């Protein structure tokens, strides 16, 4: 075989795009679920926006529903609105929306210094843990049945 190995210590957007497209092609060939998720409308994104007097955003949720799962991507509130039940209220709303879109399970990842205990109090259970990521902390994957 004739080939060359090159190491770049900077981002190469063209190569990253090439590699990403090849991984997608491979996944599409071997997983009907990946292929279906790439069809238009298969991933159902939604946002829950909480604002102060419809002007200033104070927090919310971004999520997607696909493969019968809700994947919670981002969930944040300004400090002054935390601990007042608002997070639980909109998480419940997100789960309701996800169920209406066909989700039967929910997935979220969080760091030790973020919201693990919050999710556990809402019925999520830890299914994965990475120690020392970032150094001195932990990273968790949590899931919940939505049925």
| CATH topology type | Aminopeptidase
- SSE order: HHEEEHEHEE
- CATH superfamily (homologous) name: Gcn5-related N-acetyltransferase (GNAT)
Mind telling me the CATH class? Alpha Beta
CATH architecture: 3-Layer(aba) Sandwich
Tally of helical segments: 4
- Helix % is 25-40%
Q: Any idea how many domains?
A: 1
Fold and architecture overview:
With 147 residues, the protein is an alpha+beta fold. The chain has a single domain, classed as Aminopeptidase. It is 31% helix and 35% strand. The protein has a six-stranded mixed beta sheet. The model has no long low-confidence stretch (mean pLDDT 95).
Key phrases:
147 residues, Aminopeptidase, alpha+beta, single chain
Quick description:
The protein is an alpha+beta fold and 147 residues long.
Topology:
Blueprint: H1 13-30, H2 32-37, E1 44-52, E2 56-66, E3 69-77, H3 86-100, E4 105-111, H4 116-121, E5 125-131, E6 138-145
Parallel strand pairs: 3-4
Antiparallel strand pairs: 1-2, 2-3, 4-6, 5-6
């Amino acid at each position: 075989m004739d080939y060359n190995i090159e190491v770049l210590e900077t981002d190469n957007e063209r190569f990253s795009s090439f590699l990403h497209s090849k991984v997608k092609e491979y996944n599409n060939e071997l997983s009907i679920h990946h292929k279906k998720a790439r069809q238009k409308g298969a991933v159902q994104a939604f946002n829950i926006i909480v604002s102060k007097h419809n002007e200033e955003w104070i927090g919310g949720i971004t999520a997607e529903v696909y493969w019968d799962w809700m994947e919670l991507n981002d969930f944040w509130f300004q400090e002054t609105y935390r601990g007042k039940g608002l997070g639980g209220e909109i998480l419940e709303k997100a789960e309701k929306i996800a169920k209406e879109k066909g989700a039967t399970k929910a997935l979220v990842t969080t760091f030790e210094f973020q919201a693990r205990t919050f999710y556990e109090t809402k019925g999520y259970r830890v299914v994965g843990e990475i120690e020392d990521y970032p150094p001195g902390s932990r990273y968790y994957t949590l899931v919940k049945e939505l049925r």
